[in-house]
Amino acid sequence: MAVLSTWGHQGAPISWDKGVQVFGNAHHPFGLDVLYGHSKTWQADAVITLLDTWVFDVNALRGLKWIPWYPVDTEPMPAIIKNNLERAWHIIGMSKYGVEQAQLAGLESDYAPCAIDTNVYQPTEQKRAREKIAFPKDKFIVGMVAMNKGNPSRKAFHQTIEAFAALKKKHSDVALYLHTLDGVNGQEMVNLPALCDVLGLKYAYAYTPDVNDADVIFADGYRYALGYPPEAMASIYSALDVHVLVTLGEGFGIPIIEAQACGTPVIVGDWTSMPELCFSGWKVDKKDTIPIFTNLSAYHYLPNAGAIAEQMENAYQAKGKSKYRKNARKGAMAYDADAVYKKYWKPIMKRIEEKLGQPEAPANLSKNLDVLR
C-alpha cells in the first residue's frame, strides 16, 4: 500500500512509519494533478480515495480502478456525486446514511465507517483531564470540535454560539470551548471573536490564565496549526460535559465518535449521518431546521439556535449522571479501528481482491521509485 498525501507533505516520496510509502502533493489541493502519475509509478492495482466525490473530474482518472470511500452530507445525493459514483470501479460509503442515499440512487455500495483508536480516545477522570489542559475546574463546559471553513459555515458556528449565549443567560457556571481557528486572520472563515463580542460573551485562549473568567475558550492557535496530538484531544474530550456538533449536514462527523469514546455525551442534528452516531445524548429535531438549497443542487438543513439551546439545557440538567458517560463509551466501541477493520474492511478487501483477479506484485517497483528519488 502507498498513500498520496493531500496535506502535510509535498514533492518527492518519503517513507513513513516502518516503511509506508507516502507520495507528495503538487499543485492541485486534492492531488488530482499527480494521482494518475503516482498510481502508475506505484503500479497500483486500484486507488481508494478519501475525498468528496464531487471534486473529481473522472475523465482525468484515465482508466484507473477508482474506489471512492465517499461521504454524503446533503439530501438527496447530488447528481454530480451519483454520476461520478456510477463511473467508479467500486464504491464504499463511510456512513449508513450515505449508503442509503446510494441505494436510493440505484447504486450498489459497500459500507465501512470511519474509525478511531479507542486505546487513545478513552475516558480520563474529568478533574484530572481539566488539570492537564488548564480548563476551568467547576464550570459546565460545552465543547465543539469543528473546522472553521466557509462563511456562512456548514458547521453552524453562528447558531451554536448563539445557543450557548442563551444557556449563559440562564446559568452563570457555564463555558464553551471551541476547538477551531478563531477566524480573525483567515479568509473564508467566520470571525468568531467578533461574533462573541456582538453576543456579549467574554473570550480567551486555551492555556492562558484568562480561561477561568471566560465565557468562550478558543484552542491555542499555534498548537492548533501544528496539530494537537491525539492524546491531547482525548484529554479535551474527557474534560467536556457535552460535545455539540449540530451542523447543516455531515458526511460522517468523527468528533461525535471521538467525544463519546472519551465518555462525553453529545448533541447532534437528527439528519444526514449524525443520528446514527449518537449513542448517548440529545438530538435536535429536523423540524427545527430550515432547508437550504446548496450549489450541489441538494439540501442542507440550517438548525435553529433555540432548538440547540434547548438541548444544551437538557445536557446541563443531566450533568453528573454517570449513565451518559458509560453509554457514550459503550456505543463508540463499535467504531474502534481494529473492530472496523475486522468487520468491514477485511471482507471488502477480499471482494476487491477477487474482482482484481489477484494480480502479481510488480517486478520493477523499486526501479520506478528510484527514478523519483
Within the CATH hierarchy, at the fold level, what is the topology of the largest domain? Rossmann fold
Strand percentage lies at: 15-25%
Q: In this structure, how is the largest beta sheet organized?
A: 7 strands, parallel
Low-confidence stretches: 363-367
Structural class: alpha/beta
Q: Give the strand line-up of the largest sheet.
A: 10-11-9-8-12-13-14
- The shape, in one word, is globular
The CATH class name of the largest domain reads Alpha Beta
Order of helices and strands: EEEHEEHEHEHEHEHEEHHEHEEEEHHHH
CATH superfamily annotation of the largest domain: Glycogen Phosphorylase B
Rg of Cα set: 22 Å
Named CATH architecture of the largest domain: 3-Layer(aba) Sandwich
Q: Would you tell me the overall average pLDDT? A: 94
> How many domains in all?
2
Gap between N and C termini: 18 Å
Number of strands: 16
Amount of helix: 25-40%
* DSSP summary: helix tally: 13
Features:
Rossmann fold; single chain; about 375 residues; 2 domains; 13 helices; 7-stranded parallel beta sheet; 4-stranded parallel beta sheet; alpha/beta
Structural notes for this entry:
With 373 residues, the protein is of the alpha/beta class. It has 2 domains: 2-112 and 336-372, no CATH class; 126-334, Rossmann fold, CATH 3.40.50.2000. 35% of the residues lie in helices and 17% in strands. The chain contains 13 helices and 16 strands. Helix 9 links the parallel strand 12 (242-245) and strand 13. Mean pLDDT is 94; it is low at 363-367.
